[in-house]
Design a protein that fits this description.
80% of the residues lie in helices and 1% in strands. It has 286 residues and is mainly alpha-helical. It has one domain (52-279). It is elongated.
């Protein structure tokens, strides 16, 4: 008995076509957003000149540094303190099985300065600052304020983007250094109070771990962390500004731009973190 395959239902074919079209549209939009972000970054770099030192621009820059950095210090301190405690506790428990608790200071200090400090700070700034930047500029976009700036012949990139990018590029490394110090201190609390490591021993191990190879008079691990934080800050600001300034379709479009900004920023931070770590510590494949 011969049998023939039944044709797929029209509804299933329509659903498959819809999903395929959706994915193609998503990829196309992602590539378009990437191109716009790169162009915005280049335009921002071109505008880093003496005009940034004008009093009005410095006041705008100070406002952005306060909103994007100073107000984020409490949450950075709180999260990094507990992260240092968790890191010390987890490594201490495992090292205790081999009688190597004296290495806790080394592990916590290197992990905080090289990886955890910049990563924690970057993700916090994405959630607390990047989303706010995207929503702010998105609201300006859907309410035609950006068009009004163009009508008044105001350079929107110089007026809106440059101070936000510079502020994030400056404040993210500063917050990262604060996170490193607080995280190492949090690790010392657990090491001395719960794991039986003396305070001087923990301090000496920390200093020895960070005293190695130096870049620009800075310990290598600290230098790499600060460099990562600088790149993270620029990335967060550029992505937030690029997505926000292209928001459309009212409040719904602002919400979508904010979600896309956070999603893209976190993904880029993780990728950039791996690339920079591989560049400085020889982990990239040849």
């Amino acid at each position: 008995m011969s049998s023939t395959a039944e044709p797929a239902p029209v509804g299933a074919l329509a659903e498959t076509a819809r999903v395929g079209t959706s994915w193609i549209g998503h990829i196309r939009r992602s590539l378009d957003d990437t191109g716009h972000g790169v162009a915005l970054l280049l335009a921002t770099i071109q505008r880093l000149d003496h005009k940034l030192l004008k009093r009005s621009n410095l006041r705008n820059l100070a406002d952005q540094m306060y909103a994007g950095g100073i107000l984020s210090i409490p949450i950075v301190v709180l999260v990094s303190f507990f992260m240092g405690m968790v890191l010390s506790l987890q490594t201490g428990v495992e090292l205790g099985k081999f009688g190597q608790q004296d290495l806790i200071g080394t592990i916590v200090s290197v992990a905080m300065c090289r990886e955890m400090g910049p990563l924690i700070t970057g993700i916090i700034l994405v959630a607390a600052v990047g989303s706010a930047l995207a929503a702010e500029l998105g609201t300006m976009s859907v309410s035609d304020e950006l068009i009004a700036l163009d009508v008044m012949t105001v350079d929107r990139t110089r007026f809106l983007v440059v101070p936000r990018v510079v502020a994030m590029a400056l404040m993210c490394p500063i917050l990262t250094i604060i996170a490193d110090i607080v995280g190492i201190f949090g690790g010392s609390v657990i090491a001395t109070e719960r794991l039986g490591v003396s305070g001087p021993l923990y301090t000496n191990r920390t200093i020895e771990a960070l005293r190695g190879e130096t870049f620009l008079t800075m310990p290598k691990d600290v230098f790499v962390g600060v460099l990562k934080a600088f790149v993270f800050g620029v990335t967060i600001a550029i992505v937030a500004c690029a997505t926000g300034m292209r928001a459309t379709n009212g409040a719904q479009g602002v919400g979508e731009a904010t979600r896309r900004s956070v999603r893209t920023s976190i993904l880029l931070i993780v990728i950039i973190n791996y690339i920079l770590t591989g560049m400085f510590f020889g982990l990239l494949p040849e």
